[in-house]
Structure formats: C-alpha cells, structure tokens
Amino acid sequence: MTRATDPDRGTDTTALNPVLWTEREPMRLARDQIEVRAFAPLLEFQSPADGGLPHGGWLGVLPRWPFERLQPEALDELLGNEELRVLVIYSAAHPMVPPTIYSLYPEPTIREQTQSAWHVAPGGSLCLLRSDGGWQPEASLTELLAKASGWRIEYALMKAGVIDEMTVSGIVSDSSHDHLIDRAIQRRAPTPDPTKAGETDVSP
C-alpha cells in the first residue's frame, strides 16, 4: 500500500491506497494472459478497471478435453451441447494464493455444495487442490483450468450414477475413469424389450 496526502484534511493526514497485484506483478499478469488465451481462447480477461472484480479474473468457456491422452469417443454425448462456463477470480495476493474458480454451468446445487464427494465448497467454488499447500506461486493458471475441465467430466459421471465420488487427483492425471464415459452413455440407452426380439415389420 502507498500513503497519499488528503488535501481536504490537511497535509498531516494520510490515506492508504491499495496497490493491485496487477500493478505490482505486471510480468505475471502478462504471462497469465498469454498462457490462458492459448489454453482457453473463449475465456475473456476481466480487468479490475472494469469494476466487476476488484482484483480481476476470467469469464467464459473452458475446453472439454485439454489433456494429452486420447479423448473418449462418447465424451461429447456425455457432456451434451452445453460447454463448461466458469468464473475465475483473482485474489489480492495472487500469485501467492490460487484464484477461485466457480462453475456457472453446470451450476452445482446447494446439496452438492455440502457434499465433499462433489469437490465443491460451500458457496459454489470448485475444490481443485488436494490441500492448501497444493498451489505453488510459480505454477501456471492453466493447471487449475485443466483441473476444472476434468471436474466437469467427473461431475457428469456423478450425475450419470457411474461413480460415487470424484477422484482425489482429478481426471487430469488419472485415466482410471476414462472408460466410464462410455459406460455412462450405455446406461442412457434404452433396454431392448426381449418380447419383441426377432420381430419384423409385417405392415403392407
């Protein structure tokens, strides 16, 4: 913070003016912008000057499968037409403290916010780190964004009833749930009626 003289109250009175992290860490801000725009072109930066977020952030859509391994064939059918829309909020202590990420769509229910299995904190922010020390200041914001993309997939698997809780490390680095994407779609498929097996259309 910096001290500034208040002319209306005399030179002996000073006021505290906050210094934004975006002003204190211009190189980190530039790095974040380059990396995020390459990772998720549909995310738009929200400047503190815009007045919406005091310390800035990002708003928009994340990619469905930003992972190095092969995308499961049924992924698009599992997720449907709607993309993962998020709000990323920087704190005053960025990059020492990780940003907070909210899923705007799909939006976790109040009940899901109270159940640890969904990896959502009370208030709706996503729990993407194993512990408070899981974030390193030098880490790329895109690491959290990738975890958010993985959260979206596991959220769909939870909704489909093929898993009871989300993985500890997340689907980003854990491929053990990839095959369940196809299983979730198979559950949606109607069960053939055995009484009609072998029937053919005999209409004229």
Structure description:
- Helix content is 28%, strand content 15%.
- It contains six helices and six strands; from the N terminus they run E-E-H-H-E-E-H-E-E-H-H-H.
- A hairpin with an 8-residue loop joins strand 1 (2-5) and strand 2 (14-17).
Could you list some keywords that capture this structure?
alpha+beta, two-stranded antiparallel sheet, 204 residues, single chain, disordered N terminus, disordered C terminus, 6 helices
Q: How many separate helices? A: 6
Largest sheet: 4 strands, antiparallel
Mean pLDDT: 86
> Structural class, from helix and strand content?
alpha+beta
Number of extended strands: 6
Strands in their spatial order, largest beta sheet: 3-4-5-6
Radius of gyration: 23 Å
Low-confidence stretches: 1-5, 200-204
Helix share of residues?
A: 25-40%
Can you tell me the overall shape? elongated
What's the short story on this structure?
The chain is of the alpha+beta class and 204 residues long.
